Amino acid sequence: MKPWLSFFIFTFCTMAVLEARSKVVGDSKQTQTPERGGDTASKSVKISSVGTPASNNGHGATDGVVKFGDDKSSGMGINKMASYLQRHRRLDRWGNVTCGVCVFVVTEIRDMIRRATAVQTIVQEVIKFCVNFKIEDEHVCKLIVPQFQEEVLYVVDNLLLSPDEACGIILGDACATPYFPGEMWNVTLPDTPKPIPRPPTPPKPGAPTLRFLQLTDLHLDFQYAVGSPVPCGEPLCCRVDDNITRTSTLTSHAQPGKAGKYGDYQNCDVPIDMLIALFSHLSSIQDQFDYIIMTGDIPAHDVWSQSRTQQVYHLTALDKLFDQYLPNKPVYACVGNHETSPINAFPPPGIPGQDMGWLYGALAESWGKWLPSSAMDTVFRCGVYSMSPYPGLRIVSINNNYCNNGNWWLLLNSTDPCDVLQWLIEELQSAEVKGEKVHILMHIPPGDPNCLKYWSFNFYNIVNRYENTVVNQFYGHSHQDWYTMFYDNLTFQRPVAFGFVSPSVTTYSLNNPIYRIYTLDGDYANSSWAVLDYSNFYLNLTEANLSDKPQWQFEYSPKKAYNMTGLYAKDWDDLLKRMEADDDLFQQFYLHNKNMYPRTPCHGNCKTELLCDIIEGRSYDPDLCSKHINVT
Ligand SMILES: [Zn+2]
Ligand SMILES: [Zn+2]
Q1: Higher-confidence residue: 229 or 459?
Q2: Are the C-beta atoms of residues 364 and 382 closer than 8 Å to each other?
Q3: Is 566 helix (H, G, I), strand (E, B) or coil?
Q4: Nearest bound ligand to CA 343?
Q5: CB–CB of 380/369 below 8 Å?
Q6: For residue 265, how far is its CA from the centre of ligand 1 (angstroms)?
Q7: At what angle do helices 138-157 and 3-21 cross, to 10 degrees?
Q8: Separation of 4 CA from ligand 2 center, angstroms?
């Protein structure tokens, strides 16, 4: 076995561990979406549609298609993209891997697999590599590699991309894999012209309001063990496992510490005691919200030891908590990248032997209680749905694990997997015709470099087309508190939309647990269905563990804290510009961004990175940030 073979397989496997380690905004793996040449596209696996056959118009270059060919940002120089990736710290992880090595390895590994090298030989070599190079401790190495063997070996064996293209996905544009904008895949918009943009108008004073709760990124850990050592030398601590003495070269730097009853700020997830305390508290204040949105990620970060059965068990456990403590509150959810096993693995329909029925069926069981039967077909097929909880308001739940660069199945074909975006257009067009307003739920913020570029660009254009209809968007995944902007896709100056990126319930990592309650304009005739304000509530974990009395405290409301006149896209854009100029205001935002866990003040590159994260509503567009702030 040549060392490069184990290296390459290992890179796939360790991505998941690294993913588990990196939940700070801008600290996840970089990648790029594949180029789809005609030859490649024609050989790609057949992807079936979420919509009806008649509604699937394909992605050809016809009238109404969102076009990218003239987009200067797609032809950006390598230096500019390298700078973008550096800003997102995407190059650090791959600092020792050159493009030449990558291309060589991809070529060789594909040939080796095709020469039928025994799978177990590959797996054992990778485990040895993982242990010998002290990437993780032996316990994690032995479990993480088999988790991914089926996915990785199948994908590499069936890879239809050239080695250059594959390395472009792994290493990004900085890997000298240029884009060919003409080959960008495009969703098809209807012929109906875009209505004239109508700036939102605030409701009259005294107009009725609704309120709804958002929970995101619970990451419940049933193996959480009070008193276990922290840190522990593994990607996830505070666990029963950590009480077992084992040889680990990584624990030598461990400081004395014990996991608290309600959690720990370091790499620990949520104990059931904390979740029960949260649900008990929410039950006591249930008159303060009308319904709940849940934006994904229920299981813990022990991605090396999970199974499908365990993931479904977590889903069911959460359902029981909702049933027990909040039985009359409708819950509208979307699916996170941790719901599946192995992590991030969402093979699109049509790949032989791969079927997401185990998860989508479980989601249908969980979500179906609050959805009309007409919404269930798309849950079973793609993990998405569209439903109207109130006349005039539509909730569209998107599964954007189909844009996740950690979803290796997309190496086989990343062109609108499951036709989710084409389906979204149909839902938005229908809503526009009916005069409905839409709230979009999805897990991964679409501007995050976790989200593949072309999916992200298409989504950005869809939001642009339906700016009068999509009034609010709600994301999770980052575990921290921020928002992301959408500007008009001609000048990129006029704010047309934004999305809330909500802080997590999990403490992973260096977070206080947070939940959020929004105030919404509705429910009355001609409601705007726009969020008017929200309130965050947090648990001071140190105090909770010391007192054994978890007290949820008010954190802030943006209108007051940031002196905003409203929560429309123009107001968030205005806040962005004010934060650039007013450092006190920015530092206040930064404390909220870090979930009230005190940090050193954020200046220089730290400040630029966070402001750029907000500006970049679509991924891999390094020109976007400098259109709005001074990027040095
Ligand atoms: Zn998460
Ligand atoms: Zn996530």
Answers
A1: 459
A2: no
A3: coil
A4: 2
A5: no
A6: 15
A7: 110
A8: 30
Contact predicate 102/165, CB 8 Å: no
pLDDT tens track for 344-403: 999 999 888 899 999 999 999 999 999 999 999 999 999 999 999 999 999 999 999 999
For the chain, percent of residues with pLDDT exceeding 70: 74
Q: Which residues surround ligand 2, an ion (CB under 5 A)?
A: 297, 336-337, 477
Question: Rounded to an integer, what distance in angstroms lies between the CA atom of residue 525 and that of residue 528?
Answer: 9
What stretch of H or E contains 292?
Answer: strand 291-294
Q: How far does the centroid of ligand 1 lie from the alpha carbon of residue 199, in Å? A: 34
Alpha carbon of 296 to ligand 2 centroid (Å): 7
Say if residue 621 carries a ligand binding annotation.
no
- Please give the Cα distance from 186 to 174 (Å, whole number): 24
The answer to whether 335 and 311 are in contact (CB under 8 A) is no
Establish how many alpha carbons lie within 13 A of residue 254's alpha carbon, considering only the half-sphere containing its beta carbon: 18
Single-letter amino acid, residue 500: F
Q: How far apart are CA 10 and CA 8, in angstroms?
A: 5
Rounded (10°) CA dihedral 615, 450, 294, 308: 180
DSSP code for 259: -
Separation of alpha carbons 450 and 406, rounded Å: 7
Distances in Å between the Cα of 368 and the Cα atoms of 97, 373, 399 are 46, 8, 16
Judge whether 562 and 585 are in contact, CB under 8 Å. yes
- List the one residue out of 389, 391, 418, 424 whose CA is nearest residue 403: 418
Average pLDDT over residues 431-448: 97
Instruction: Give which of 632, 620, 448 is closest to 78, Cα–Cα.
Output: 620
Mean of the per-residue pLDDT values of the chain: 81
Decide if 22 contacts 449 (C-beta within 8 A). Answer: no
The rounded distance, in Å, linking the Cα atoms of 526 and 415 is 37
Mean pLDDT, residues 144-165 taken together: 72
Where helices occur in 551-598 by DSSP H, the ranges are 558-561, 569-581, 583-593
Name the token pair of 323.
Answer: 């049933």
Burial 221-236 (b: 16+ CB within 10 A, else e): bbbbbeebbbbbbbbb
Could you give phi then psi for residue 470, rounded to 5 degrees? -80, 100
Distance 299 CA to ligand 1 centre (A): 9
Q: Which pair of tokens denotes residue 75?
A: 């032809």
Q: What is the mean pLDDT of residues 263-274?
A: 93
**Residue 22 in this model has a pLDDT that exceeds 70:** no
